[in-house]
Amino acid sequence: xxxxxxxxxxxxxxxxxxxxxxxxxxxxxxxxxxxxxxxxxxxxxxxxxxxxxxxxxxxxxxxxxxxxxxxxxxxxxxxxxxxxxxxxxxxxxxxxxxxxxxxxxxxxxxxxxxxxxxxxxxxxxxxxxxxxxxxxxxxxxxxxxxxxxxxxxxxxxxxxxxxxxxxxxxxxxxxxxxxxxxxxxxxxxxxxxxxxxxxxxxxxxxxxxxxxxxxxxxxxxxxxxxxxxxxxxxxxxxxxxxxxxxxxxxxxxxxxxxxxxxxxxxxxxxxxxxxxxxxxxxxxxxxxxxxxxxxxxxxxxxxxxxxxxxxxxxxxxxxxxxxxxxxxxxxxxxxxxxxxxxxxxxxxxxxxxxxxxxxxxxxxxxxxxxxxxxxxxxx
Length: 379
Description:
With 379 residues, the protein is α+β, with helices and mostly antiparallel strands. It has helices spanning 30-33, 69-83, 100-111, 125-130, 140-146, 150-157, 171-179, 206-209, 304-311, 348-356, and strands at 9-11, 42-45, 48-54, 64-68, 90-92, 115-117, 135-138, 161-164, 184-190, 195-199, 214-215, 220-223, 228-232, 271-279, 285-290, 295-297, 300-302, 317-327, 331-340, 367-370.
């Protein structure tokens, strides 16, 4: 059992202050129900109304996760406390609203009694600033693009907070944003955990921003003996085997969902995230990569994300992807795809030398490929 495992790392839960009050104490909140993009997310169950939100599929086939409205409020309160959202704040709904990252932005605005702005397709930070936006959520690709434009960097600098999540963020990008004095907050979470579990805070040092932050209030994290990140808390969602992401559901009762999160379930149950990591002495989480991405080369574990992060430290590398490739001698060896920020070609021997200064020798890719000229758009 998980409870019997040695606690390789544990960050104890902290609670929201008793006097923290949410203005979204009743359901349904009209502003959310009126957003067309959210129309297909709402579902009825015997205890009230909740949501069914599809995961990204990082653990295989996408699945639907059920949360009650009360769970969304609980998840939002912790982020509000960490980011300083208030009734004077304006959030940009900058992420897809049918995914947890976008939905959570709207919920936080509702719970903080603040306002939100719907962006147009080609929005940029200067436009957001003109709308009065104070809080912005981005993925690393968006931030990287806008960091190339000094005008957009100046606009980003004037925001109250920029939340970064969604994927691994290169140390090079974090350092560049830090040196530009951008108010960035690095985060870690998932659909199952109702968005954020850990986050850094405004004013954290550069070294802390390289991590995924500390456990937010009303959550608990640990790393088990195998290195997997485990999470527990009342905001953990429920994945019912009868929920098909390809179908449309508007009534959980028909699917025999009678479980009320945070009540009927054992509150000591840990959710296994499928991510590997460690917790440092200050309680900050370091995410190493996905368990299912791990490759074994000559009996040694290799995590592609670690190699990708090292490659992205190279000043001439814009994008990097590392995958496992069959190798007759070692079983598997890393193969790297790299995109350069200029037209010149870097020789594999040069990149291998660069990585050997940062990684153990067996982690250095044996196979190298140029970035494909066209890559599919990820939804």
